[in-house]
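stuck on this chain:
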Amino acid sequence: MELRQDPSSSTRWWGKETRAIVTGGNRGIGLAIGKRLAELGVTVILTARDAKKGKEALELLRNEGLGDYIHFSVLDVSDPHSVSAFATWFKLNFGVLDILVNNAAVSFNGLYENSVKHAEIVIKTNFYGPKLLIEALLPFFRRSSTHKSRILNFSSRLGLIHNVKNKNIRAILEDEENLSEEKIEGVIKLFLEQVKEGRWENEGWPKEWTDYAVSKLALNAYSKILARRLRDSNISVNCFCPGFTRTGMTGGKGSRTADIAANIGAQLALLPPQSLQTGKFSMGQSFFLHSRF
């Protein structure tokens, strides 16, 4: 399923009444995808944990003529109280949600480092954060037989199952019929226990940015379960790896700009209903047709 550079008017299903939340929206890909969605006529709520930086991003986009389409609210996805407060604020101010882009994430490693010193924070932010936010916002998604709401979880190829060499862990994650949130959290608990015991390196976990990769491994698995759970609710759930992108997380290195990655992400978020799949993983221009990711 190849994507065109610009959605055509014949497949345009959205308008200003369409509401999208973009987490981690004060810089990098989050800011860029928020900008792109607003340019295409979607009402966008940018979020950031730092109020000052979020308001600066809001002002930047307002100065580019997008003030009618851009809003901002503080949100720290790693803080349950912040998530609850944001959900309440969203309900009061917007009420209905069409698109959720879970972009907010952290990594404490340099490009060629692989420390797990901050593994708990990484897991809490990158896996539990999106999961908690999704569950808090589920009541607000627009649901109808003709409309498909969308959840797009920004993920990474580092979290693909083939990077896990531990056969027992792979068996749990590949058994999709019996995969559950409890089993995913069991995998996370095992990883964090091994980190504390100092024996994670030889246990078959992904070799690159291990804590980040495990957080995305869990997010991918949860996305598959959620897609199955919401299939009859007309809410799609997909994952998107933006690739090696020049952002703060990569130290400004990468093979593509944040704008390029964001343009692809925006197109995935705005696919016409008849083309929109669920429970899939994208690494660029098309969704994988297989579900083992």
User: Anything to note?
Assistant: The domain at 17-282 is CATH 3.40.50.720 (Rossmann fold). Strands lie at 19-22, 43-48, 70-74, 99-102, 149-154, 235-240, 281-282. The first helix runs from residue 28 to 39.
